[in-house]
Amino acid sequence: MAESTQLVDLVHSRIDEFLADRTSIVASISQDLTPLLDFSRQFLSGGKRFRALFCYWGWQSVSGIDDNFDPFAESTPVADLSPVVTVAAALEMFHAAALVHDDIIDNSDTRRGAASAHKLFETLHAEADWAGSEIEYGRAAAILLGDLLLGWSDELIDAGLDPLENRSAARTARSEFNRMRTEVTAGQYLDILEERAWLRRPEDELRSRAERVIVYKSAKYSVQAPLVIGAAMAGGDTAQLDALRSFGLPLGIAYQLRDDLLGVFGDAEVTGKPSGDDLREGKRTVLIALTRERVPASTRRILDELLGDAGLDETQVRMLQSTIRESGAVDEVEALISRNVVRAVTTMTDARLSRLARRRLSDLAETVTHRDA
User: Fold this and answer.
1) Comparing 140 with 281, which gets the higher pLDDT?
2) Given 56, 106, 126, 216, which is the most exposed site by the fewest CB atoms within 10 A?
3) What band does 198 get if pLDDT is binned at 50, 70 and 90?
4) Would the pLDDT of 79 be above 50?
5) 16-20, 174-178, 245-249, 273-277: which has the minimum mean pLDDT?
6) What is its EC number (predicted)?
7) In the predicted structure, residue 34 carries a pLDDT above the cut 70
8) For residue 328, pLDDT beyond 90
9) Looking at 235-302, which runs of residues are DSSP E strands?
10) 173, 229 Cβ separation under 8 angstroms
């Protein structure tokens, strides 16, 4: 998919350009702020750019209704791509902010195989031998880094939408971005709530509550919202936006279900997170809900006692992994992933969207749900 590779390169360049511009502002305040800039670059330098890709293909699905449309053709002015590239970069900036805050909430020490933001700030404090607690400093500084990235994502959204001649399209795209921010924050809250309140919930509600977290913390934010924002920028009508919503939600659910499996069984060298990290963090996922439904009461009690213990050793992690696998929950989650992918791809069959975008989105559906990181 050459178009996707070109898009990712353009998003990288737009992020680098934005950070270079903001460097002069931050550096003019104090050289003590250098870590904010360095760590921003670090957290924005990697990743799979799925949100940027969904934003672009949402835009192309409407812009490219004419089959001769090729935004990367030499005859197409580069400036024509600038708005969607900038908005895609804004979504990646927002994602980086969410990861910084998420690692603080989850007390996660690593991100993509390296130290998470709060751990980087802790190390800075320890090496400089500053006063007070390095842990408190790390958390406070990382919260501010996440807030800074959130603010910058808002600036980038404005920069991408301001040049659009179709002001109604710009307002719709902005409204979708604002809705996404509210939904993902609500989903994050529900996630931490379920980790702590599940013992007081009726047994027959645990799975549906875990599914609700998936929808609002991940599915809408990771897939559906980027698609709709991109299509809205291109002036997509109600039917086109609804078709992309119908594609994006089940695919987003499948995407997160794969993440849940990787959080328990993933290879640390590939995922950049310790194997079984979700078990130590006590994530109340659909995978865990399905396991609890399938095991005897005695096994369920052991699972409940160990889940969320940050001190789980490798033996205990392997025991929990075996319990989950032998319960049949992994097979059920794999089946759910497959059903949601089929549901998503089927909606593309007759959608009034560009043929190229429909093909590429079907390809992306396979990519994001059959990954090992």
Assistant:
1) 140
2) 126
3) confident
4) no
5) 273-277
6) 2.5.1.-
7) yes
8) yes
9) none
10) yes
**Tokens 């400089």 map to which residue?**
128
Please give the mean pLDDT across all residues of the chain: 93
Q: What number does CATH give the domain 1-46+77-163?
A: 1.10.600.10
The C-alpha torsion from 341 through 347 and 350 to 354, rounded to 10°, is -70
Alpha-carbon distance of 235 to 168, in angstroms, equals 8
Rounded to two decimals, the pTM is 0.94
Query: What's the CA gap between 158 and 342, in Å, rounded?
Result: 35
Give CA–CA dist 352/347, Å, rounded: 10
Question: Is 231's pLDDT higher than 80?
Answer: yes
Q: Read off φ and ψ for residue 29, nearest 5 degrees.
A: -80, -50
The pair of three-digit structure tokens given for residue 8, joined into one six-digit string = 């990712």
State how far the Cα of 343 lies from the Cα of 252, in Å rounded to an integer: 11
CATH says 167-373 is which class?
Answer: mainly alpha
Q: Residue 115's beta-bridge partner residues?
A: 110
Closest to 180 (Cα-Cα) out of 297, 278, 87: 87
Cα 123 from Cα 137, distance rounded (Å)? 10
Domains 1-46+77-163 and 167-373 share a fold: yes
Position 76 pLDDT exceeds 60:
no
Average pLDDT on 106-121 reads 89
CB–CB of 157/177 below 8 Å? yes
What gap in Å lies between CA 347 and CA 336, rounded to an integer?
17
